[in-house]
Amino acid sequence: MKLWYWILDLLFPPKCALCRRILEKNETDFCANCRKDSPLFPELPGNMHPSGKSRLQFLDSFTAVWYYKENVRNGILRLKFHGGTALAAPYGRMLAMKLYQCRRESFDLITWVPVSTKRRRKRGYDQAELLARSVGAELGYKPVCLLKKLRDNPAQSGLRGEQRRANVLGVYGFTGKTDLHGKRILLIDDVFTTGATAEECARVLKTAGASSVHCGAVAAAQKEE
User: Fold this and answer.
1) Per-residue pLDDT tens digits for 204-220
2) CB-CB neighbours of 207 under 10 Å
3) Distance between first and last Cα of the chain
């Protein structure tokens, strides 16, 4: 078995999940440069919006690993649009570590922000679900599908502020398969930009009975658009 792994490493050497440089023997998932230089997202007090300009309305807290820029942005785009499903595991491990460090309280359920049936069929996977499964494996939870996307709305990219909020209003629904009353929910997503999508998902979950909803994302935009 060791010989087999040696052959695989020889033919397909592991690469950094951000910059794609071949890893040294003592490096795991990310190269030393990316671990040191990638723009880390700070810990926020309470339900502060990542922009620092307002409070989140429905989310009780938010955290991310990095800011959405440079190699982090490129890596997430590979995960979402270019079949980079293997990236969900290292990104999920980093997010789980950040959640453990910043959010010491436990959760009752882990779920994710779903893509539409049309987009999932086109991509062949839901990147947020893959991230949730990776986070869950690290934290000891089995993710549960609590949300469904009711229609394939236009992509949020290219929209700003109020346009984003209007674009997701009524787009998500509760699956109705799990009793949420009094439950603390961890909601996983890939990128948090203005927060419109995560806030709408949190609203739906709280309407269904959840006592609190906390969001964890791989990256967050540096400024509210």
Assistant:
1) 999 999 999 999 999 99
2) 12
3) 51
Please answer whether residues 73 and 225 qualify as being in contact, where contact means their C-beta atoms are separated by less than 8 angstroms: no
pLDDT of residue 161: 62
Distant-in-sequence, close-in-space partners of 62: CB < 8 Å, separation ≥ 6: 44, 47, 48, 49, 50, 56, 192, 195, 198, 214, 215, 216, 217, 220
- Run of H or E including 61: strand 61-67
Specify the pairing of strand 184-192 against strand 212-220: parallel
- 139 burial level (CB within 10 Å; 0-12, 13-18, 19+): middle
What residues does each domain of the chain span?
1-37, 38-220
3-state secondary structure of 51: coil
* Cβ atoms of residues 44 and 62 within 8 Å: yes
What is the pairing mode between strands 172-174 and 147-149? antiparallel
Which of 16, 122, 119, 129 shows the shortest CA–CA distance to 75? 16
Separation in Å, CA 193 to CA 28, 146, 184 = 28, 22, 23
Q: How far apart are CA 111 and CA 161, in angstroms?
A: 25
Distance CA 182, CA 58 (A): 15
Is the sign of the CA dihedral 22, 28, 33, 38 positive or negative? positive
pTM: 0.89
Q: Which two tokens stand for residue 10?
A: 């020889």
38-220, which class in CATH?
alpha beta
pLDDT tens digits, one per residue of 169-181: 778 999 998 999 9
How far is it, in rounded angstroms, from Cα 97 to Cα 82?
A: 26
Contacts of 1 (CB under 8 A, 6+ apart): none
